[in-house]
Specification:
Blueprint lengths: L14 H9 L16 H7 L5 E5 L7 E6 L5 E5 L4 E4 L7 E2 L9 E7 L5 E6 L6 E5 L7 E5 L7 E6 L5 E8 L2 E7 L7 E2 L22 E4 L3 E5 L7 E5 L7 E4 L9 E8 L5 E7 L10 E4 L7 E2 L10 E4 L7 E5 L2 E5 L7 E4 L5 E4 L5 E4 L5 E5 L1
Length: about 375
């Protein structure tokens, strides 16, 4: 799950969760803890099965690019026209908990600590970029940050734990701007940019899935870029004070191309996805992998066939992950080296939880939960 940097302790695996994890790992592949609580007959029964998205009825036409999965039963989505929905019954019912007066806002990211506490990011130039926070399941919201710099434009949020988090925006004065909170999003401050590498000409971030800024553990965080001659991934080991930048293999050289999302299963192993978001443009190199924390990236041998905007590792697996985009969902069973399309539906973002609750969200109110 994105909340708290995907670092909450792994929950005890239930039989159903073990079956799902096993189904997403190739026969013979290693999956961390995947055999716990699962019999040989159960393993044999799920080998070769493919994941299936099960759409839920949200009752809205909003486009949801913000998604925070809390568990198999609880999730939040945030999207266009200031829309925020929450479910606590696995998607059977969704509650509209949109902030009052937010209809003009574009909510592109949301981070949730549980079913009651969440932090949402609105994007845009100047005062359109805001942070909103709720502690009562969306019954009431508090605006905890409003951008007053007309040059700034914020794209993504991430939290390391329930107190410490960051928000990242496009470059200002030649360097990416980063906000920091140490009180769960109640207050924010702009971090000094002395430790931030200079941005490349035309370089910016993409507010496409809430995954252009992701964290793992107590201090590691990665920021993705595009729009320049090289699409890069920036990495900080100290909660955003200092950064290093590395070139990816993903398409670049155009404002519509770059790295749109990353996911890390530990401090070393990550997957980057993106490409060219224009539907009439090909994205032949839409995924890459790293085994050294993002210092270097290798192009996927068989990448997804088109642009992908969101990616998530499957819990308990060292090899399985999902990548989503407007033209379908891709599955990898070998750590991102090869991908195959397993669902043609349009989704913008994906998120998984330690109890094997995987969710996806996108256009026209589409929100789905993974099943078999």
């Amino acid at each position: 799950m994105k909340a708290m940097g995907k670092t909450r302790r792994l929950m005890a695996m239930v039989t159903g969760g073990a079956a799902l994890a096993a189904a997403l790992v190739a026969p013979g592949a290693h999956a961390a803890q995947v055999t716990e609580g699962r019999t040989a007959s159960q393993e044999a029964a799920v080998r070769g099965l493919l994941p299936e998205w099960r759409l839920t009825g949200t009752g809205t036409g909003a486009r949801f690019r913000g998604l925070a999965a809390v568990s198999r039963t609880t999730a939040w989505v945030a999207g266009s026209k200031g829309t925020v929905l929450r479910t606590s019954d696995g998607g059977r019912t969704w509650h509209d908990v949109s902030p009052p007066g937010a209809a003009e806002l574009e909510l592109r990211d949301i981070e949730a600590f549980d079913g009651r506490r969440a932090v949402a990011l609105a994007i845009g130039e100047g005062e359109a970029s805001r942070v909103l926070r709720t502690e009562d399941g969306g019954a009431t919201w508090t605006e905890s940050f409003r951008n007053t710099d007309p040059r700034a434009f914020f794209n993504c949020l991430t939290f390391f734990d329930s107190r410490h988090g960051l928000a990242a925006g496009d470059p200002v004065d030649g360097r990416f701007r980063v906000l920091s909170t140490a009180d769960g999003g109640r207050s924010w401050r702009v971090l000094p940019d002395a430790g931030m590498p200079a941005a490349l000409p035309g370089e910016a971030g993409f507010a496409a899935s809430g995954q252009c800024l992701v964290s793992f553990g107590a201090k590691d965080v990665w920021l993705t870029t595009g729009g320049a001659e090289t699409a890069r991934v920036l990495h900080s080991r100290d909660r955003g004070l200092t950064w290093t930048a590395s070139a990816s293999t993903l398409p670049a050289g155009d404002p519509a191309r770059g790295v749109f999302a990353v996911a890390f299963r530990d401090r070393a192993h990550g997957i980057a996805v993106g490409g060219d978001y224009r539907p009439d443009q090909a994205s032949p190199q839409a995924a890459a992998v790293t085994g050294d924390g993002g210092r270097s990236w290798r192009q996927s041998a068989t990448p997804p066939p088109a642009y992908r905007s969101g990616v998530a590792w499957l819990p308990y697996s060292r090899t399985a992950a999902l990548a989503v985009g407007p033209t379908g969902t891709g599955l990898t069973r070998d750590g991102g080296r090869t991908w195959r399309t397993v669902d043609p539906g349009s989704y913008d973002t994906v998120d998984c939880t330690p109890d094997l609750g995987c969710w996806a969200a996108g256009e026209k109110g589409r929100v789905a939960r993974l099943g078999l």
